[in-house]
Amino acid sequence: MRREVIVGANLSLGYQSGKSRKEVLQGINFKLFSGELTCLLGPNGVGKSTLIKAIMGRLPVWEGTLTVQGKSINQFTQKELAKNLAVVLTEPFIPGNMTVTQLVSLGRTPYLNWSGYLSDLDKKAVYKAIEDTKIAYIQHERLSDLSDGQRQKAFIARALAQDSPIMVLDEPTAHLDLVNRYEIMQLLREISVQKGKCVLVITHDLDIALESSDQIWLMNCGEDLLKGLPEDMVISGNINHLFPQEKFEFNTQRGRVEIKNQPGDFDIEGPLELIFWLKKALTKAGIYQVNGPIRIKNEPLFIFHKGKEYGSIESFIGGLRIGNK
Amino acid sequence: MRSSRNSFLLIVSVVVLVLSLFLNISLGSVTISTGELLDGLFFNKWERASFEQIILNYRFPKAIVAVLAGIGLSISGLQMQTFFRNPLAGPYVLGISSGAGFGVAILILAGSIFGFASTAISPWATAFAGTLGAGLILALVSLVAWRVKDSMTLLIVGIMFGAAVSAIISVLAFFSGAEALKLFTIWSLGSLGGLGWNQVGLLSFVVFLGLIPVIFSIRSFNASLLGESYAESMGVNPNRLRWLMIGSTGLLAGAITAFCGPIAFVGIAVPHLARIVWKTSDHRILFPASGICGAILLLLCDAVGQLPGSAQSLPINAVTSLIGAPLVIGLVLRKNFSKEF
Known about the structure:
The structure holds 2 protein chains of 2 kinds. Chain A folds into 2 domains: about 5-245, Rossmann fold (3-Layer(aba) Sandwich), CATH 3.40.50; about 270-325, no CATH class. Chain A contains 10 helices and 16 strands. Chain A has helices at about 50-55, 80-85, 100-105, 120-130, 150-160, 180-195, 205-210, 230-235, 270-285, 315-325; strands at about 5-15, 20-35, 35-40, 65-70, 70, 85-90, 165-170, 200, 215-220, 225-230, 250, 255-260, 270, 295, 300-305, 310. A 6-stranded mixed β-sheet of chain A has the order 6-7-8-3-9-10, sandwiched between helices. A 4-stranded antiparallel β-sheet of chain A has the order 2-1-4-5, covered by helices on one side. A 4-stranded mixed β-sheet of chain A has the order 13-14-15-16, covered by helices on one side. Chain B has a single domain (about 1-340), classed as ABC transporter involved in vitamin B12 uptake, BtuC (Orthogonal Bundle). Chain B is mainly α. In chain B, α3 packs across α12 (about 265-280). Chain B has helices at about 1-25, 35-45, 50-85, 95-115, 125-145, 150-175, 180-190, 195-215, 220-225, 230-235, 240-260, 265-280, 285-305, 315-335, 335-340. The interface between A and B is medium-sized, with 33 and 32 residues.
């Protein structure tokens, strides 16, 4: 059922210009499985795109092995690889005159002869890809007239039409709003689960990666990938390897990254939820100490401090600042 | 619905092309009406013997050359623009016209300096010299293309070769006499006429050869619209495409420049015109569309250049730029240009 699709073992990659060699990744091990969505996270410049280039066959493997469908990547011709792997890249050229259908049709390129004629089978695949990504309503629109979210879906549809068991996406949710980010990842999840595709997504969206991925890989400089089920990564604290630990931490209760709270000296009484937000606002405003007890209550919000009443956290902080002067 | 619109426009443009062809042939220093023209062409009944001479040996070959040059330059330009992903690329970015100019400059200018050329230079000689020069530059650019894999580097190298060769031409021009200088200047202004049927035959053959690689790269050009990385991910071999493109534009632009001189403007502007009119980026449509538009544009420009009632005609380069530039500026301003590309 779960099948190894891409396997990298002791992989070293880098760039060579003339005699100077710059090694970016070394000793990387991983396995990508069919029917699974894997998210790769890591800081900028750590080598995520380098890994993708190697998987796309655009970068030679220096050391170790990289196999796709059990066959070494070096043995693939360009066309064979194209039938196995489709990509969605960052910052593509966008030919404004092209319609969504034309873009999706380009996905059929590896199956066409020189004339570029689409057979009925090709047209069916294009139509299916448009249906599956739910963009039928914009299929005749031109790319220059689309929103970023719609365009990204169109590019995913193009990759889908390529009908490959593997899909690799480089930051597909960059520049998108919250709803679109969730929609795109949900779509990718559906694709991986329903079609049994192996989907690898590079992203900086930790929240969404935790929400939608089957596996999370963390990439850090000079280390092998940290891999695991997102939930395991959270519980074990491995997820904290993603950021410099003196400043940020992953709040396991809230499931998100937070700036480490400076220990504050507050005496607050009230519902826990409100205390949390009040503390947060105070430390953000640079207030680490408040003399005397504070009482907070909700509906309507009131903050009582030293005999005064405040209707919002903002006015409370304003009051504290005046009092301190 | 879309594709039927495209086909309809293509048919219309072919009709316009045929009309332009007749217009072009009937205009000139001697007025020949369309009726007389058709009688002559189809029934071989000429009003006057001189008409037959004018039409068959002068105007008709010139019109054919206009069609060939229009098709060849536009299609070279389209290939360059898509390959380099650059709307300002044209058939001459790889230095082909400078190369041809270099060959002709050696023949005319250096010939006059060192005294090995006569004052009367046959079109065969200029064509031969132009072909040699264009071939030389193309060989150099190919050497670079063989070594570097990056398309932007190739573009810059092509332009630099062109600049270097132009500098040599300037030096030659500086030292040559007035007579030779005028001869060279006239060549560099471009001319569609003055070619005999033999030369037209050869030019047709080379243009035909140059169009063959285009047919085999349509699919790859379409995939290249999204950039090199995407093209490769779809199984396009960028090396193969590059060599097909160099071969095709070398033959097309090289031969046309060798026979007609460097014809400006058509190669850059016509592909944009085709994109704006057909509203597509599909090369299955754009290649024929650009070819036909290029032919129409050159035929009309040549017709305009025939000063009525005079044996003189304006140099084709001046007309293409004078008419074409405002036309394209208008179209570009009306539409959001960068969106169209």
